[in-house]
Amino acid sequence: MVRFYGNIFNNKKKPGDGEHSHGGILFEYEFFANVIEIRETARLMVTQLLRLCAVFGGVFATSCLSNDII
To answer: Where is the Endoplasmic reticulum vesicle transporter C-terminal domain (predicted)?
Structure first.
């Protein structure tokens, strides 16, 4: 399982009255971030076979192409 904690940061803050600012990098953290969970489910045998055929086909096409160039 992969967990992704995504924070979208778009904050333009101007100093208030009596405050001053210096150039720099400001880090602000959000304590309640969005959480996206990605769960891998069981794959069908047909899907596995199709991916294996795609790999073999890609290797074959690449070897034929490189053989024609050489």
So the answer is: 17-62
Number of structural domains in the chain: 1
Tell me which residue of 34, 16, 35, 15 sits closest to 26, measured CA to CA. 15
Measured over the CA atoms of residue 11, residue 14, residue 18 and residue 24, the dihedral's sign is: positive
Name which of 5, 53, 61 is nearest 29 in CA terms. 5
Q: Tell me: the pLDDT tens digits for 22-54?
A: 666 666 666 666 777 778 788 789 999 999 999
Range of the domain at 60: 2-69
Closest-CA residue to 33 (of 9, 12, 10, 13):
9
Q: Which residues contact 29 (CB under 8 A, 6 or more apart)?
A: 7
